[in-house]
Amino acid sequence: DGGITQSPKYLFRKEGQNVTLSCEQNLNHDAMYWYRQDPGQGLRLIYYSQIVNDFQKGDIAEGYSVSREKKESFPLTVTSAQKNPTAFYLCASSTQGQGGELFFGEGSRLTVL
Amino acid sequence: AQSVTQLGSHVSVSEGALVLLRCNYSSSVPPYLFWYVQYPNQGLQLLLKYTSAATLVKGINGFEAEFKKSETSFHLTKPSAHMSDAAEYFCAVIYGSGNTGKLIFGQGTTLQVKP
Description:
The complex is a heterodimer of chains A (113) and B (115). Chain A is mostly beta strands and 113 residues long. In chain A, 0% of the residues lie in helices and 50% in strands. Chain A has strands spanning 4-7, 10-13, 19-25, 31-37, 43-51, 54-57, 64-66, 76-78, 87-94, 103-104, 108-112. In chain A, a hairpin with a 2-residue loop joins strand 5 and strand 6. With 115 residues, chain B is mainly β. Helix content of chain B is 0%, strand content 52%. In chain B, the strands form 2 sheets. In chain B, strands 2, 4, 5, 9, 10 and 11 form a 6-stranded mixed sheet that branches. A 5-stranded antiparallel sheet of chain B has the order 1-3-8-7-6, with no helix packed on it. In chain B, a hairpin with a 5-residue loop joins strand 4 and strand 5 (44-50). Chain B is globular and about 40 Å long. The mean pLDDT of chain B is 89. At the A-B interface, strand 4, strand 5, strand 9 and strand 10 of A face strand 4 and strand 5 of B.
């Protein structure tokens, strides 16, 4: 079945460690997105990519990095520079174009110990 | 700044009662509007989408929303709540022209359904 796969679903890390969250889609979508979700704050855009080998910062990009080497994959690295990384991270994809619906993965919950 | 506001972070209804979740956007230009639902520890699923074809939009699971330009609103309703409707609901908007497909989300409304 077509969809978006995020892994791992739960992740624990110690302070000062970088961690990479995986996002893979087989929907043949051009655009991919990373959102961060915190209680009471909705979803905030971290990074997005509209095409392979290109990506743009979202509203809260500091302390995060991404790559888009393949159309299907858009991994997110949470670096040690991110001051409050404990959150629920959601990856999404869409067909490029105005008004496009986003399709979401199941999310990855990161906890920093 | 352009934004979307959901009134009420928590809404509680009895099973069988009307569900009304409020959403207002801040733009004079009709945007693209969406409602998403999120069950615990899962991603978001699209409930319905407004694209200017019709002001009353019907979605999945018996939900519908009405676009009211004069009120800059896009409230979500369901005539009769079911226990399985308990979830978090997000209103989202794409503003203006362009090709980014970047959504702005409201802060979410948690719907509780009491037996």
